[in-house]
Amino acid sequence: MATQLRKQISVLSLSTLSFTVCFAVWVMFSIIGIPIKAGLQLSDTQFGLLAATPILTGSLIRLPLGMWTDTYGGRIVFALLMLSTIVPIWFISVATAYWHFLVLGLFVGVAGGAFSVGIAYTGRWFSKERKGFAMGIFGAGNAGAAVTKFVAPTLVVTYGWQMVPKVYAAAMAVTVVVFWLFTYSDPGHKVGEQVTIRDQLAALRDIRVWKYCQYYSIVFGGYVAMSLWLTKYYISEYGFGIQTAAMIAAIFVLPSGVIRALGGWLSDKFGAHTVTWWVMWTSCVCLFFLSYPQHRVVFKTIRGETTLDLGLNVWIFTALLFVVGIAWGFGKASVFKYIGDEYPHNIGVISGIVGLIGGLGGFLFPIIFGMMVDFTGINSTIFMLLFMVSCWSLVWMYTTEVRGVKTLKLIASTGLEAAAAEEQARDRATRQVDGLEPPSDSKELSLPGA
Which domains does the chain have, with CATH numbers? Predict the structure, then answer.
């Protein structure tokens, strides 16, 4: 028992550390993309594409990685994944043209697929009662985005942006070695070679999977997109330098990543639906206020014109972002609690599908952000988009999990009432035939259903 517990702790700790490093690498363009944008004179849309390119690969590869994890085991897949990213990370430091960064970003983005591998690998080591908490701890590796916010700006200012990929490549190499030395092969069930890809992809016909994809596209995709965009937002909207902007952005990024473990515990205690329901409501309320643009109102008075500046100052803005980050941190855990409860035997595939769609949200959002800002010139339009997506998630949840459950209960209760009424009618008719009860006003007695 003690040996099993030691293995569980070791696997959970090293998987979380490895995912943290992978996530830091995955979002590195959120920082180094800013001096690259200035040097290459890129538009906001081009910056959005640059920052989001690694997210595309990391999202698309999650599904095959999830299937390979179910078939071959998480330990070997995780190690090979990290190993494959070291060289592309290093070569970013010598890239000079925009297309160089885009191509290398695609290869580096493989690091983002670590989630679907690690979540399945970690989940298999724990019972159903503790699975949500364990998966929440692993998911706290999202805080790798905050590591980039703390580490990368200092490296950029001190040594130049080229030092960031060099340091990250070295860190990834060390992480691979440590992970392989202190983890163990997957316990329990594996899908096995006899199950085809077609069999595994049959999950795509399950509407619940698509619903969880929708939830994850905002709580995770939105988180990734904001991690990529926020430093630039603070620079553009409030005029901060890159180090200050990154530090303030970490107020959103770090708690949202770390709090995921608490979200897993809450999901175990209160259920995935309850946690996700309040996550969506909180998101909608906060994003509504965050989407309010900075503007100035001029009043004509008897003494002349009076100007009133309206909009969120940096502290109220950051406080609302902090609340959104906490909510999304809970939501990232609660969505995978749904998956762990409902799909225990093919969690790798389902987490791969949900992670893919959620990651695509993280890819598409920054590009759309850039297009919206280029078109309107208003920074807060990005929150208008996130608000609409959150509202749609809430509507879908209400119609399928709140109203849908009430409808099923109503149908069930109506069916029981009808069955009871029919049974009473049969009993009454039988008693009338036997002379135990006076006949009804009808001229002919007949048993119901005769």
Answer: 2-408 (1.20.1250.20)
